Amino acid sequence: MEAEEELKKGNFAKARQMFDSLLRKDKNKIQYLLGKADCFALEGRWTDSLPLYCEAFKNGKVKPERLFQLVNGLTQTINIERDCCRSRDDDGASVLQCGICSGILCDPVTVPCGHSFCKLCLEKQEAKKCVHCSEPFAFVSLKVNVMLQDILRKSFEKELEATRLRLEGNNLHRKKQSLQAIEKYREAEKFSKYSCCF
């Protein structure tokens, strides 16, 4: 199909127009809806793409392999945000950033070596050692650093909410609840639309 060829070439606006035209002729074609969503996703336009993916899920079965462009677009966005955060390491912003997920610390836990991570990220880690300095620690002694949590809550309310929603979305995705996960990612996108990490 010509629209898919334009998408592969990276001509997202042209491909999107073609998918729009095809949708006007046949609104029930999930393939066209997903094609249009893919165009938005690859442009990093999540507030436009996620509702289309949700509509496709509601209207029919979507095979997991058909979500490659969604995953590809998310990966690109995450890499851009990580690069942005890395370029700001000099100003101390990385102190408030989880070394595992690269997001702002959510329910921060400070391990014995002094490094801090999101509690959920640490719980998912198989290795019981700090990712920064490799010092081992025991999971049973991990408690939320309430002082750091309070500072984050007061200073980075929107960013913290976006991180919390993303983590909830990740958890739903692991439970194979893709539609609910996309909704959480969509909510998170609203909070972080105009900020790059901090």
Question: What is this structure's SSE topology?
Answer:
Elements: H1 2-9, H2 12-25, H3 30-42, H4 46-59, H5 68-87, E1 108-110, E2 116-118, H6 119-124, H7 146-155, H8 157-174, H9 178-192
Antiparallel strand pairs: 1-2
Helix pairs in contact: 1-2, 2-3, 3-4, 3-5, 4-9, 8-9
- According to CATH, what is the class of the largest domain? Alpha Beta
| Count of individual domains | 2
Terminal CA distance reads: 42 Å
Structural class: mainly alpha
CATH architecture grouping of the largest domain: 2-Layer Sandwich
Largest pleated sheet: 2 strands, antiparallel
Report the helical percentage: 55-70%
Strands of the widest sheet, in order across it, are 1-2
Counted beta strands: 2
Strand content: under 5%
What is the radius of gyration computed over CA atoms, rounded to a whole number of angstroms? Answer: 19 Å
- Overall geometry comes to elongated
CATH topology of the largest domain: Herpes Virus-1
The CATH superfamily name of the largest domain is: Zinc/RING finger domain, C3HC4 (zinc finger)
- Average of per-residue pLDDT values: 80
N-to-C series of helices and strands: HHHHHEEHHHH
Low-confidence stretches: 87-93, 194-198
Number of helices in the DSSP assignment? 9
Question: What does this protein look like?
Answer:
- Mean pLDDT is about 80; it is low at about 85-95 and about 195-198.
- The radius of gyration is 19 Å and the shape is elongated.
- About 30% of the residues are buried.
- It has helices at about 1-10, 10-25, 30-40, 45-60, 70-85, 120-125, 145-155, 155-175, 180-190; strands at about 110, 115-120.
- It has nine helices and two strands.
- Strands 1-2 form a two-stranded antiparallel sheet.
- The protein is mainly alpha-helical.
- It folds into two domains: about 1-85, Serine Threonine Protein Phosphatase 5, Tetratricopeptide repeat (Alpha Horseshoe), CATH 1.25.40; about 90-198, Herpes Virus-1, CATH 3.30.40.10.
